[in-house]
Amino acid sequence: MTKILVTGGAGYIGSHTIIDLIDVGYEVVSVDNFINSNAQTYERIHQVSNSEFQTYDIDLCVHEDLERAFAENDFAAVIHFAALKSVGDSVNDPLQYYQNNLVGLINLLQLQKKYKVKNLIFSSSCSVYGNAEELPVTEHTPLKEAESPYARTKQICEEIIFDFLKTDPDFRAIVLRYFNPAGAHSSNLIGESPHNIANNLVPIITETAIGKRNKLAVFGSDYPTRDGTCIRDFIHIMDLAAAHTKSVDFLLKEKPSDQGIVINLGSGTGSTVLEVIHSFEKVSGQKLNYEMADRRPGDVIAVYADYRKAKKLLGWTPARNLDEIMHSAWQWELKRSH
Ligand SMILES: NC(=O)c1ccc[n+]([C@@H]2O[C@H](COP(=O)([O-])OP(=O)(O)OC[C@H]3O[C@@H](n4cnc5c(N)ncnc54)[C@H](O)[C@@H]3O)[C@@H](O)[C@H]2O)c1
Fold it and tell me: Which residues are CB-neighbours of 283 under 8 A, at least 6 positions away?
């Protein structure tokens, strides 16, 4: 069986992707140090996928530890999720973010070179576009100044990968720029369970509804949008996971001539904050306690992806809509809170 190294496999996107990879017949090895996850997630993945896989409790920043995973396995490709991802934390402690996200990637690339693992899929983010001026955002939309150290680590990591590609004509990388992943697995056994307090809209909505928070503040109601609130692009976590499997297929089977391929992953349409709230209220049958508040500095008015490149190259399209995202997120919140 073709073996894939997944870094950060106990995390939110990694865990859903492992299930998808196993489902289509790949063998998976996961490396994670649980800095933002826990080992229970592996047990749940085993339960859902009905299969075991090898795991390493390793910090990617410790080169000799990470080397063990390479020495003991023959990987066809790497999917690199492991990174710190909180925008706010990155502002407070930028060095931790540069250390973890850059050193982890550099160690990985050094070992991929040494062990001749020629394929990489990298988790990037729409935050690399900064305050994009054109909509929808395509892969050609110019990158703007990063809005946070976190976003800057993604920009720098992309550059590191593109520079590295020039040193080995056989190396291939797909850089996936995610928009806003949300929702949970249909099994209701895995979902997003970060160590720190959530700072994305969907978990904030479900945490408010369950009573972990008093009230949701909607920042800005006078933006030039359909209902005055900001527009964001939400992508169901299972659709996002499937895009990774398709990326692996593409690299291993199609063997593209382009060495570095950037692909946006979003739903293609934006939803306003109020539309997301109303979708939640519809699927949960609950009224949400929210209030309109002033605009928040730094918020972009609207951002959503053009995903035609993902469709063309990977044959991927998002299959699940906003209601399905909100329904799965709510079921997961009910499960993890009781
Ligand atoms: N979730 C989002 O909204 C989003 C959006 C865009 C991009 N991304 C990127 O996607 C990737 C995965 O995100 P996620 O939402 O699954 O995050 P997550 O925090 O749930 O998962 C990341 C995993 O990596 C592990 N990890 C971090 N640093 C490590 C290290 N040095 N060594 C070993 N393990 C380490 C964590 O313990 C965690 O399990 C990240 O690179 C993130 O920046 C996420």
Answer: 323, 326, 327, 330
How many domains does one find in the chain? 1
Asked, for residue 221, whether it belongs to a domain, the answer is: no
With a pLDDT cut of 70, the percent of the chain lying above it is 99
Question: Of all atoms in ligand 1, which is nearest to the CA of residue 60?
Answer: 32
Residue 215, domain member (yes or no): no
Catalytic residue chosen out of the listed positions 150, 178, 223, 290: 150
Residue-number span of the structural domain to which 53 is assigned: 3-183+234-267
pLDDT (0 to 100) of residue 59 = 98
Confidence of residue 298 (pLDDT cuts 50, 70, 90): confident
Separation of CA 81 and ligand 1 centre (Å) = 5
Ligand 1, pocket-test mutation among 7, 41, 85, 96, most atoms within 8 A of CB: 85
CATH number of the domain to which 73 belongs: 3.40.50.720
CA distances from 295 to 65, 124, 220, 271 (A): 46, 27, 4, 17
- Rounded Cα distance between 113 and 136, Å, is 36
Distance 197 CA to ligand 1 centre (A): 15
Residue 18 phi, psi (nearest 5): -60, -45
Beta strand pairing status for 216-219 and 27-32?
A: unpaired
Q: Which two tokens stand for residue 189?
A: 């056994």
- 99 Cα–ligand 1 center, Å: 14
Active site residue 56: no
Quick: pLDDT tens for 135-179.
999 999 999 988 899 999 999 999 999 999 999 999 999 999 999
Q: Kindly state whether residue 273 falls inside one of the protein's structural domains.
A: no
C-beta 217 within 6 A of ligand 1: no
Residue 130 lies in a domain: yes
Instruction: Decide: 155 in ligand 1 pocket, CB within 6 A.
Output: no
pLDDT, tens only, 234-278: 999 999 999 999 999 999 999 999 999 999 999 998 999 999 999
